[in-house]
Amino acid sequence: AQSVTQLGSHVSVSEGALVLLRCNYSSSVPPYLFWYVQYPNQGLQLLLKYTSAATLVKGINGFEAEFKKSETSFHLTKPSAHMSDAAEYFCAVSRSGNTPLVFGKGTRLSVIA
Amino acid sequence: DTAVSQTPKYLVTQMGNDKSIKCEQNLGHDTMYWYKQDSKKFLKIMFSYNNKELIINETVPNRFSPKSPDKAHLNLHINSLELGDSAVYFCASRPTTGAGYNEQFFGPGTRLTVL
Questions:
Q1: Model confidence pLDDT, tens digit, residues A90-103
Q2: Is the pLDDT score of B1 beyond 80?
Q3: Residue of chain A whose Cα is closest to the Cα of B95
Q4: In sequence order, what DSSP letters do the residues of B61-96 get, joined into one string?
């Protein structure tokens, strides 16, 4: 079975500071990994995905994530936080392209002016 | 030009009622899903449909019955609503071929409140 662990249910950073949201996964097969963002009262928007190509994946809004097989991690980073980045972030894994997503519990990012 | 749409956006109802949530996608995708997001924001798969056929039913109570009249629609009917059914329900779709075949596109969600 697959699972995702997101360390820290709430992360708070200052505007302009580095954003680091942690995600570790468990999968018996090479996984497909995703980061989604959810703004208040909205749906889920895909930030980026890893599908066995390049291990460093660049996404929208300046975010990127690095797949590290040895650490079973797929942490999300952004060099400089903006106020508009405040949202809930979900890491997700799927066994293959055609299986449902298994989500982590989410990390709420707050950005302080 | 909405990709995945859901109606209604908000639904408030009494315990014991029967209600439906509709989902439509205009992306030409073959696979559609229903996910439930509980009050703690935890997201979990409920159903998966491919070409109108049920593929996955993740131990959801049989009070929940998905129906796919065609590939573009996946509706969710809930009988005898309970307080614990209060949640946000997300529909999603995914192409089965092509460059984005492993990417799911989510609707805006339906917030169901059972009183």
A1: 999 988 766 888 99
A2: no
A3: A98
A4: -TTEEEEEEETTEEEEEE-S--GGG-EEEEEEEE-S
Q: Does A43 touch chain B (CB under 8 A)?
A: yes
Residue A28 or B90, more confident: B90
Asked if B102 lies within 8 A of A49 by C-beta distance, the reply is yes
Which residues pair with residue B32 across a beta bridge? B49, B93
Q: Per residue in A5-22, pLDDT tens?
A: 999 999 999 999 999 999
Mutate to test the interface with A, among B106, B111, B113 (most CBs of A within 10 A): B106
Nearest of A88, A76, A83, A72 to residue A19 by alpha carbon: A76
What does the radius of gyration of chain B's CA atoms come to, in whole angstroms? 14
User: Which tops the pLDDT comparison, A69 or B17?
Assistant: B17
pLDDT > 90: percent of chain A: 73
Place of tokens 């949530």: B21
- Contact indicator for A102, A94 with CB cutoff of 8 Å: yes
> Cβ separation of B102 and A43 shorter than 8 Å?
no
pLDDT band at B20 (very low <50, low <70, confident <90, very high): very high
Shortest CA gap B47–chain A (Å): 9
- Residue B72 near residue B24, CB atoms below 8 Å: yes
